[in-house]
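Worked problem 6 (solution included).
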Amino acid sequence: MKNDAFGRKQRINKLMVRLQCNLRQLRHKNKLSQAQLAAKLNVDQSTISNFESGRSVMTIEHVYELYLMFGDDFSCPGMLFAQRGAVEKGNLGHEQEVSCLSD
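Solution. The predicted structure is:
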C-alpha cells in the first residue's frame, strides 16, 4: 500500500463517502438541522452541506470534534479513537490522547 498511490486514493475516497453518510444519518438521528450542527462546530451551514455532499472535506479537527460531540455514535470507519488517559493542560482542563488506528 505504501507505494500504491491509486490504492490509497481509493481507500481515502471510500472513507470520505462513509463519513459523509454517517454525518447525515447522525444529524437526522439527533434531529439537528444543518444550521444547528454548523453552529455547534462554529462553521457555516453551507460547510455542513458541502461535507455531506462531498464538495468539501472535513478536517481531522472536525472529525474529532464530531466524535467528542456524539461519542461512539459517530463512527469513523477505518479509524479507532481510543482514550489512553488525560493530561492536565492549563485552562482547558484535560487533554485526552487519541490513537487513530487504520484498518
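Discussion: The CA atoms of residues 18 and 77 lie 7 Å apart.
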